[in-house]
Amino acid sequence: MNVKQYAYRVIWSEEDQEFVGLCAEFPSLSWLDEEQDKALQGIVSLVKDTVADMEANGENVPEPFSLQKYSGKFMVRTTPELHRQLAMQAAETGVSLNRLINSRLSEGRA
Predict the structure, then answer these.
(1) Helix-strand-coil percent breakdown of the chain, rounded to 5?
(2) pLDDT for 59-110, tens place per residue?
């Protein structure tokens, strides 16, 4: 498996005063380093070792998000009151409820 296909990110940890390398497909793994690029190199290396161990033990290795297929559909349950409010907002702005919610999700707000 090409471990470079996984979704990596590096964030600053105020608590640790170091950069933290993370991998979305392996949420329990992290790598701390004083240098941002080394935090990324560290988490990639750790994931590579973890995948090798999993494969050697016959475990299922997570598929990278980048290779997964998505339909673009998902169902969300909410309260009747919120549903009513969103439907009203959609009508007031002249868009469908689906378009309103999609716009809000893409903007990062609910």
Answers:
(1) 45, 15, 40
(2) 999 999 999 999 999 899 999 999 999 999 999 999 999 999 999 999 986 5
What DSSP string describes 13-58?
A: ETTTTEEEEEETT-TT-EEEESSHHHHHHHHHHHHHHHHHHHHHTT
The owner of tokens 């070792």 is 49
pTM, to two decimals: 0.73
39's CB contacts (< 8 A; 6+ apart) are 10, 18, 19, 20, 21, 31, 32, 33
pLDDT of residue 78: 95
For residues 38 and 50, give the distance between their C-alpha atoms in angstroms, rounded to a whole number: 18
